[in-house]
Protein backbone atom coordinates (compact mmCIF):
# COMPACT_ATOMS: atom_id res chain seq x y z
CA UNK A 1 0.00 0.00 0.00
CA UNK A 2 1.28 3.47 -0.84
CA UNK A 3 1.06 5.77 2.21
CA UNK A 4 -1.71 8.25 1.50
CA UNK A 5 -5.01 9.39 2.94
CA UNK A 6 -7.39 10.09 0.07
CA UNK A 7 -10.37 11.26 2.08
CA UNK A 8 -11.58 11.71 5.63
CA UNK A 9 -15.34 11.35 5.99
CA UNK A 10 -17.04 12.63 9.12
CA UNK A 11 -20.46 11.31 10.14
CA UNK A 12 -22.41 14.42 11.12
CA UNK A 13 -25.73 14.93 12.89
CA UNK A 14 -26.82 18.04 10.93
CA UNK A 15 -25.36 18.10 7.42
CA UNK A 16 -26.49 21.65 6.63
CA UNK A 17 -24.98 23.06 9.84
CA UNK A 18 -21.70 21.20 9.28
CA UNK A 19 -21.52 22.38 5.68
CA UNK A 20 -21.98 25.99 6.87
CA UNK A 21 -19.26 25.51 9.48
CA UNK A 22 -16.67 24.12 7.07
CA UNK A 23 -17.61 26.13 3.97
CA UNK A 24 -18.55 29.54 5.36
CA UNK A 25 -16.92 29.44 8.79
CA UNK A 26 -13.56 27.89 7.91
CA UNK A 27 -13.57 28.76 4.20
CA UNK A 28 -12.93 25.26 2.83
CA UNK A 29 -13.61 25.02 -0.92
CA UNK A 30 -16.70 22.88 -1.50
CA UNK A 31 -16.94 20.56 -4.50
CA UNK A 32 -20.11 19.78 -6.43
CA UNK A 33 -21.80 16.81 -4.79
CA UNK A 34 -25.20 15.17 -4.31
CA UNK A 35 -27.42 16.77 -1.63
CA UNK A 36 -26.92 13.97 0.93
CA UNK A 37 -23.13 14.44 1.11
CA UNK A 38 -20.64 17.30 0.93
CA UNK A 39 -17.04 17.19 -0.26
CA UNK A 40 -14.28 19.75 0.28
CA UNK A 41 -10.86 19.82 -1.36
CA UNK A 42 -7.90 19.67 1.02
CA UNK A 43 -4.85 20.06 -1.20
CA UNK A 44 -4.24 16.45 -2.17
CA UNK A 45 -7.11 14.83 -0.28
CA UNK A 46 -10.77 15.50 0.51
CA UNK A 47 -12.99 16.02 3.50
CA UNK A 48 -16.40 14.40 3.24
CA UNK A 49 -19.45 15.11 5.38
CA UNK A 50 -22.19 12.49 5.47
CA UNK A 51 -25.10 11.80 7.78
CA UNK A 52 -23.90 9.99 10.92
CA UNK A 53 -26.61 7.29 10.74
CA UNK A 54 -25.98 6.68 7.04
CA UNK A 55 -22.22 6.51 7.45
CA UNK A 56 -22.53 4.05 10.34
CA UNK A 57 -24.94 1.94 8.29
CA UNK A 58 -22.51 1.96 5.36
CA UNK A 59 -19.70 0.76 7.65
CA UNK A 60 -21.96 -1.78 9.37
CA UNK A 61 -21.47 -0.35 12.88
CA UNK A 62 -23.81 1.24 15.47
CA UNK A 63 -24.23 5.02 15.12
CA UNK A 64 -24.51 5.72 18.85
CA UNK A 65 -20.78 6.13 19.54
CA UNK A 66 -19.88 8.80 22.06
CA UNK A 67 -16.93 10.26 23.93
CA UNK A 68 -13.43 10.43 22.53
CA UNK A 69 -13.32 8.87 19.08
CA UNK A 70 -9.65 7.91 19.42
CA UNK A 71 -8.30 10.31 16.79
CA UNK A 72 -7.85 13.98 16.01
CA UNK A 73 -7.44 15.87 12.77
CA UNK A 74 -4.44 18.21 12.63
CA UNK A 75 -3.87 21.34 10.59
CA UNK A 76 -0.34 22.76 10.67
CA UNK A 77 0.31 26.44 10.06
CA UNK A 78 3.46 28.51 9.69
CA UNK A 79 3.45 30.52 12.93
CA UNK A 80 2.12 30.75 16.46
CA UNK A 81 0.09 33.80 15.41
CA UNK A 82 -1.55 31.72 12.66
CA UNK A 83 -2.54 29.11 15.29
CA UNK A 84 -4.25 31.81 17.35
CA UNK A 85 -5.93 33.25 14.25
CA UNK A 86 -7.31 29.93 13.03
CA UNK A 87 -8.56 28.92 16.48
CA UNK A 88 -10.35 32.27 16.69
CA UNK A 89 -11.86 31.79 13.24
CA UNK A 90 -13.12 28.32 14.16
CA UNK A 91 -14.68 29.54 17.42
CA UNK A 92 -16.31 32.46 15.59
CA UNK A 93 -17.76 29.93 13.13
CA UNK A 94 -19.34 27.89 15.93
CA UNK A 95 -16.57 25.59 17.13
CA UNK A 96 -15.96 24.97 20.82
CA UNK A 97 -12.47 25.80 22.07
CA UNK A 98 -11.23 22.62 23.77
CA UNK A 99 -7.64 23.60 24.57
CA UNK A 100 -6.37 27.15 24.15
CA UNK A 101 -3.17 27.52 22.13
CA UNK A 102 -0.02 27.10 24.18
CA UNK A 103 3.58 25.94 24.02
CA UNK A 104 3.62 22.13 24.06
CA UNK A 105 6.05 19.48 25.25
CA UNK A 106 7.24 18.49 21.76
CA UNK A 107 8.56 22.00 21.04
CA UNK A 108 5.67 23.50 19.12
CA UNK A 109 2.60 25.58 19.80
CA UNK A 110 -0.91 24.20 19.46
CA UNK A 111 -4.52 24.24 20.58
CA UNK A 112 -7.68 22.25 19.90
CA UNK A 113 -11.23 23.01 18.82
CA UNK A 114 -14.24 20.74 18.41
CA UNK A 115 -16.41 21.11 15.32
CA UNK A 116 -20.23 21.10 15.65
CA UNK A 117 -20.22 17.29 15.97
CA UNK A 118 -17.40 17.20 18.49
CA UNK A 119 -14.62 16.10 16.12
CA UNK A 120 -11.32 17.36 17.51
CA UNK A 121 -9.07 19.49 15.34
CA UNK A 122 -5.57 20.38 16.48
CA UNK A 123 -4.16 23.60 15.07
CA UNK A 124 -0.40 23.58 15.42
CA UNK A 125 2.79 25.35 14.56
CA UNK A 126 5.49 22.72 14.45
CA UNK A 127 9.01 24.12 14.03
CA UNK A 128 10.09 20.73 12.66
CA UNK A 129 7.65 20.92 9.71
CA UNK A 130 7.86 23.29 6.77
CA UNK A 131 4.39 24.44 5.84
CA UNK A 132 5.34 26.27 2.65
CA UNK A 133 3.18 28.54 0.53
CA UNK A 134 -0.49 28.87 1.45
CA UNK A 135 -1.47 26.40 -1.29
CA UNK A 136 0.69 23.66 0.27
CA UNK A 137 0.10 21.93 3.59
CA UNK A 138 2.59 20.42 6.01
CA UNK A 139 5.48 19.20 3.90
CA UNK A 140 7.90 17.61 6.31
CA UNK A 141 11.59 18.24 6.47
CA UNK A 142 14.04 16.05 8.37
CA UNK A 143 14.36 16.68 12.10
CA UNK A 144 17.69 18.31 12.91
Automatic annotation (TrEMBL):
Annotated organism of origin: Thioalkalivibrio denitrificans
The protein here is known as Glyoxalase
List the taxonomic lineage.
Bacteria, Pseudomonadati, Pseudomonadota, Gammaproteobacteria, Chromatiales
Q: Which Pfam families does the entry link to? A: Glyoxalase (PF00903)
Q: Which Gene3D superfamilies match?
A: 2,3-Dihydroxybiphenyl 1,2-Dioxygenase, domain 1
Domain named VOC: residues: 4-126
Residue ranges of coiled coil:
none
Amino acid sequence: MKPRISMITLGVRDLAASVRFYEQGLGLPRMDSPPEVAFFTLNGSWLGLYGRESLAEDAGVPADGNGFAGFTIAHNVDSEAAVDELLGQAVSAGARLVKPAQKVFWGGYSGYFADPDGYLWEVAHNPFFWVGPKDERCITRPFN
